[in-house]
Amino acid sequence: GSVSDMLSRPKPWSKLTQKGREPFIRMQLWLNGELGQGVLPVQGQQQGPVLHSVTSLQDPLQQGCVSSESTPKTSASCSPAPESPMSSSESVKSLTELVQQPCPPIEASKDGKPPEPSDPPASDSQPATPLPLSGHSALSIQELVAMSPELDTYGITKRVKEVLTDNNLGQRLFGETILGLTQGSVSDLLARPKPWHKLSLKGREPFVRMQLWLNDPNNVEKLMDMKRMEKKAYMKRRHSSVSDSQPCEPPSVGTEYSQGASPQPQHQLKKPRVVLAPEEKEALKRAYQQKPYPSPKTIEDLATQLNLKTSTVINWFHNYRSRIRRELFIEEIQAGSQGQAGASDSPSARSGRAAPSSEGDSCDGVEATEGPGSADTEEPKSQGEAEREEAPRPAEQTEPPPSGTPGPDDARDDDHEGGPAEGPGPLSSPATATATAAPAAPEDAATSAAAAPGEGPAARSSAPPPSSSSSSSSSAPRRPSSLQSLFGLPEAAGARDSRDNPLRKKKAANLNSIIHRLEKAASREEPIEWEF
DNA sequence: TTGCAGTCAATATC
DNA sequence: GATATTGACTGCAA
């Protein structure tokens, strides 16, 4: 009955749960001839002949660092964990193993040729990107991902960073040959990996690829080879182009990659990249603080006031929200590890509000999320801001607007025809102020607060924290076997602590004052609602 | 339609 | 030159 149903009404892949995908993977394997004629275990029966026999195979994914939730953490969590309790279905795991030989991820084909550089991009757009694995089966990466146990994304990226830096391998090369991603994406991924459970299937792909790569004993060697070949090719091209007196196309960034079909698109005038001025960003951030989910009208107002396209404003909000969210993930992780070390705030407590530490900056997101309370970067005004904002709408402001789950309701703009824009609000000022160079009168705390940070070096010295913290950790101790060593590197934690303490104090003070005000407000207005 | 995830690719920064 | 940042885009889901 199930089979009939499945065959006649298959659900789209994306709608299937991991479990639900299992039969399709089996079918695919069967179609590929991978499963032979062995008797597959049905449902609860774990080990049919075929699967049973393969459980002894090495599972490259399992070799890697499987995250704590899924693996009984032993001191050497990177060792194969055949007994992992993780999988809801052992059989899937077995399939994973079946599919995953210790495979060299780099070499694409047996013909000795390295994967054609153009491969990754080309195949990338395909629905089922074939892994550049010479490995055993033609299983697509998606299938591997679907079957993969939970991976420790932080551990993986950390190790990858280590390997890359230790061997002087670039992100671009790694990204393009191993992950099929561009340098920027790789950088982002390595610096701010999301936890496995927050990743979509697609988002897990690169991590699976990384894990496979890490498990490849010849990974570095192969990448080195690639590097050499790239260099050779580049030299060749240069020479030939020089001798041919070619107008020497710029040493294409992607080297031999890409350019699949785009030597000419250069002609069609490219849209110049929009670069938002600091003041504009400040204004947007302030708008965000008020309404992380501005209404179309607000967006339009914003766009008008800042003289930007509405799409730019929309994009900015999307990007900002999602980047803040990512920062928060990291904060949570870091906080978690810190918490273990005896840090004060519990992760659960912080997950609600913005995580304090990455001190806003690169993650001004965090700062923004935290709203006025965050203080870190703008301590001086934070009080004022807090006053201005907390008092009127305590609930909204204390709450972490965006955080993991967009709690649109609390901050969404919808109605308020006036929206945040009503009143000059935070938005209007900077733009106009910039224009006039003379920041309008102290319209409100927020405005002035934003104006200042715009120029103040203190606020501007934002970028480093999160990434630097992560990178610092990358140079820290090795052996990312256990969760602690992955996330809570003693050194790193120590460094953080010493650096954060003053900030923490400030924050604590700030929070206290906010709480205090909230309580006051609560006692005045709606005591019941504030019961919590 | 809206929001999000993931990514690209231009640009900034180191 | 390598890496980080970020505006824009695509595809998907609710």
Automatic annotation (TrEMBL):
According to the UniProt record, one GO cellular component term is: nucleus
What protein does this entry describe? Homeobox protein cut-like
Q: Where in the cell is it found?
A: Nucleus
Its lineage opens with:
Eukaryota, Metazoa, Chordata, Craniata, Vertebrata
Superkingdom field: Eukaryota
The record lists the organism as Papio anubis (Olive baboon)
Region Disordered: start-end pairs: 61-134, 235-272, 337-506
Residue ranges occupied by any CUT domain in the UniProt entry: 142-229
Give start-end positions of Polar residues composition bias.
Answer: 61-74, 255-267
- Name the DNA-binding segment ranges: 269-328
Q: Where is the composition biased (Low complexity)?
A: 75-91, 341-358, 428-482
Enumerate the spans annotated as Homeobox domain. Answer: 267-327
Q: What family is it from?
A: Belongs to the CUT homeobox family.
Sequence ranges of Basic and acidic residues compositional bias = 378-393, 409-419, 494-503
Identify the keywords attached in UniProt to this record, alphabetized.
Answer: Coiled coil, DNA-binding, Homeobox, Nucleus, Phosphoprotein, Repeat, Transcription, Transcription regulation
GO MF annotations in UniProt? DNA-binding transcription factor activity, RNA polymerase II-specific; RNA polymerase II transcription regulatory region sequence-specific DNA binding
* Name of the gene: CUX1
